[in-house]
Amino acid sequence: MVRILVLMALVSVLHGCSGRKVFLERHSFSELKWNRFEEVKFTADIRETASPLDVYIHLRHHTVYQDDKLFLTIAITAPDGTRRIRDVEIRLKDKDGKFLSSGMGDLWDIRVPAFEGITLGDPGKYIILLENRMSRYDTPGVMEIGVEIRKSDT
User: Fold this and answer.
1) Of 13, 23, 56, 132, which residue is the least packed, with the fewest Cβ within 10 Å?
2) Any idea what the Cα angle at residue 84 is, between residues 133 and 62, rounded to 5°?
């Protein structure tokens, strides 16, 4: 009986968390590097636009990542063509050079907000572009980049 109650509570919590998620998609880099000129494109079919939303960047990187930060630009294009653009700085290491992300072995994951509490226009397909803004041609150690859109707490 106790096991059933615990299982029901866990399912309820997981369902409540997943109910806020509107979109989540990731892009993997096959050669463990992100080329500066490779834009990553996502298409999100957003139906609920009345409530405020939070947009997060997900990054999975390898221990070979050299820099303290990753600089990128996110652009969200609405179905009517209007665009929101923001530069995002993802701090990956502290002042002592230790990774700030959560990790296991050589893999590290971090999630940072790009937009918080934004409202979108009409429902429809939104194009989300991520652009690498690092100064070198290739940024080694980047394994995966993604976008998550959630209903905001605000």
Assistant:
1) 13
2) 35
Provide the pairing of β-strand 124-132 with 69-77: antiparallel
User: What distance in Å separates the CA atoms of residue 125 and residue 144, rounded to the nearest whole number?
Assistant: 23
Q: Distance (Å, rounded) from C-alpha 24 to C-alpha 140?
A: 24
* pLDDT tens-digit readout, 48-99: 888 899 999 999 999 888 888 999 999 999 999 999 999 999 998 888 878 8
The domain ranges of the chain are: 22-151
Closest by Cα among 5, 22, 24 to 13: 5
CB within 8 A of 41, min separation 6: which ones? 127, 128, 129, 130
